Amino acid sequence: MGVGHESDRIVDGTVVDRVRHLADAANPAFAAGSLLVPLVFFGASLALSSTTLLFYTHVAAGAVWFGFALIFPAIIGPTLGGLGREASAAVTTTLVPKAVFFLVGFSLTTVLSGTVLLTPDLGLGYGFASRWSSVALGIGWGLFAFGLVVPHRLQLSAYYETLSSEPDASRLEAIEKKNLVVGLFEAATMLGIIVLMTGFRLGL
Question: Which residue spans traverse the membrane (predicted)?
Answer without folding.
Answer: 30-56, 62-83, 95-118, 130-150, 180-200
